[in-house]
Specification:
CATH topology of the largest domain: Methylamine Dehydrogenase, Chain H
Structural class: mainly beta
Strand content: 35-45%
Distance between the termini: 91 Å
Number of helices: 1
Shape: globular
Radius of gyration: 24 Å
CATH superfamily of the largest domain: YVTN repeat-like/Quinoprotein amine dehydrogenase
CATH architecture of the largest domain: 7 Propeller
Length: 440
């Protein structure tokens, strides 16, 4: 009898240990020590993400540009671990916005699509003689569109679910390309002439302060933040957008080769996450502020996660967040990493000395420049050029090479002036990224 009791106790103990081991292993796999783990989209034929939103910690949506001959709407029901294709279209999508768990809208220039069953089906709303560069949805009936076209563009509103549209603002060549409404009355449009505000649902607009925006968020009628997508500037208002205080992002020196805030997300009045910066070694960075945008630190994503730049960011709560770029991204269920860098140098952030990428010369250049790299061991080499949006422009080298120093002459005859990046990959692993400037 005593022997049987002992055996039963041992069996029970082993059972509970196995359960505990499973739980630990599951949590580690889904929330590793780095705070972020990588997620990927299915094959979308080279399309890029245009917008992303989550309605809760599990359900989210992504809309894309054209890849092949179609653009895509993707949905996840497990926090981004898997994405399912729900809808295709022959025009690039621009924005996706949900007003509740079931009802959402996306615009694709000459059409708006609406779902009332959590993205399972999408029905078209035609836009006669107008298209949408940006969209802001209040409810099922009321939607605003911004159209930057110089003659017939402006701000348009429907109050009957798209049956009729009324032009509310036209500024000719300065027509807005971005639109945002905080509530039914207060809204903002971004134009080449500056920031316009309305306090009566878009019936009247007046020129406010602060200039253009790419992304903008308000937590109440007075307090808001915005960015212009270029430069190291981030702005905050506490008087409803009449005046804006400018805060600087970390400078483009040392670790950060491109300091940009392309998209940001307010978790609270104090905590702001941002996507856009690029590190000098090509490892994607994420910005975070815990003092309402006055200053930002940054996280360096783990070396095993090979993403050049994040461009979209979304948090459904303080702990659950997603940051995506290209056709993949990272997800956290613990509020990200615990380590944020506020200085420029990162200890232990070294490039292997057996592969070296040199700065191009001349730099700035027009139209030719030279790119050199050194190999102390034979390897499969890729040398790629990217534009400022993180999109690949050209692959200069894609082959196995022996030990030696190589010089590639890069011609930019088909490119516009601006900032570009070139990256060295060795055996499919990103080794280094450097910035070059094309002048026209």
């Amino acid at each position: 009898m005593e022997k049987n009791k002992f055996i039963n106790k041992i069996s029970s103990l082993l059972f509970y240990i196995s359960i505990l081991t499973f739980i630990i292993a599951f949590n580690f796999a889904h929330n590793p020590p780095g705070g972020w783990y990588q997620q990927s989209l299915p094959n979308i034929n080279g399309a890029s993400i245009r917008d992303m939103t989550f309605t809760d910690s599990l359900n989210g949506y992504i809309v894309t540009s054209i890849g092949g001959s179609n653009s895509y709407i993707l949905k996840t029901t497990n926090g981004g671990d898997n994405w399912d294709l729900k809808f295709t279209h022959n025009q690039p999508f621009v924005k996706v916005q949900f007003i509740n768990a079931n009802t959402g809208f996306t615009n694709a220039f000459t059409k708006i699509f609406k779902t009332t069953n959590a993205g399972e089906n999408w029905n078209a709303i035609n836009l006669p003689q107008i298209f949408g560069d940006d969209m802001s949805v209040l409810n099922e009936d009321t939607v605003w569109l911004a159209m930057s076209e110089g003659f017939t563009g402006g701000v348009f509103r429907t109050t009957n679910g798209g049956l009729n549209w009324v032009q509310q603002l036209n500024l000719g060549s300065q027509n807005p390309s971005h639109i945002y409404f905080y509530n039914s009355r207060i809204g903002f449009s971004a134009t080449g002439a500056g920031l316009y505000k309305t306090t009566n649902s878009g019936v009247n607009w007046f020129l406010g302060g602060g200039g253009f925006f790419i992304d903008i968020h308000f937590t109440d009628s007075l307090t808001g933040w915005k960015n212009n997508g270029t430069g190291t500037i981030f702005q905050k208002t506490t008087d409803g957008g009449l005046n804006w205080v400018t805060y600087n992002l970390p400078p483009e020196t040392g670790t950060i080769v491109l300091s940009r805030l392309i998209r940001f997300n307010n978790v609270s009045r104090d905590t702001i996450w941002g996507a856009g910066p690029v590190s000098i070694t090509g490892r994607a960075l994420i910005y975070k502020s815990t003092n309402s945008g006055i200053s930002f630190g940054y996280e360096v994503i783990d070396t095993s996660i090979n993403i050049f730049q994040f461009r979209h960011i979304e948090f459904s709560s303080r702990l659950n967040g997603w940051v995506y770029g290209g056709s993949s991204g990272v997800h956290t269920t613990s509020g990200g990493d615990t380590t944020f860098y506020t200085n420029i140098a990162i200890s232990g952030y070294n490039i292997p000395d057996y592969y070296k990428l040199h700065q191009n010369y001349p730099n700035p250049f027009n139209p030719l420049t030279n790119i050199e790299y050194e190999l102390k061991l034979p390897a499969n080499i890729k040398l790629k050029v990217y534009n400022i949006l993180g999109m690949e422009v050209i692959t200069l080298v894609n082959k196995r090479q022996i030990t030696g120093t190589y010089k590639i002459r890069f011609s930019s005859l088909d490119l516009t002036g601006g900032v570009y990046f070139y990256s060295l990959f060795v055996n499919e692993k990103l080794i280094d990224t450097k910035k070059m400037i094309l002048v026209r």
